[in-house]
Amino acid sequence: QVQLVESGGGLVQAGGSLRLSCAASGTIFSISAMGWYRQAPGKQRELVAIITSGGSTSYADSVKGRFTISRDNAKNTVYLQMNSLKPEDTAVYYCNADLTVRVARPYYAYWGQGTQVTVSS
Hints:
Elements: E1 2-7, E2 10-13, E3 18-26, E4 30-39, E5 46-52, E6 57-59, E7 67-72, E8 77-82, E9 91-100, E10 108-111, E11 115-120
Parallel strand pairs: 2-11
Antiparallel strand pairs: 1-3, 3-8, 4-5, 4-9, 5-6, 7-8, 9-10, 9-11
């Protein structure tokens, strides 16, 4: 019913930039929030940034001032602009959407397949 498709990952040198995109498709009634999580080797998955349908944003301390999350509600798409990338940012990045498929149904968290971001020194 619902699919999240990510794009924009890749290899970049330290100090460079990448822009991740994630589009949600399928039967969607409403999305309350979309966000990005990441998981580095040997680490737990952590929240990177999240944005609500109203435009409120929240960031992990490690990315504040460098990453910017944005959302196109009409397209059910979330973006993550990543600037001044560091090797510590290397991880698999996962897109998340908290959505409901119809009126009066509970919201449920959907996840993308993940995209690799590698930052070299």
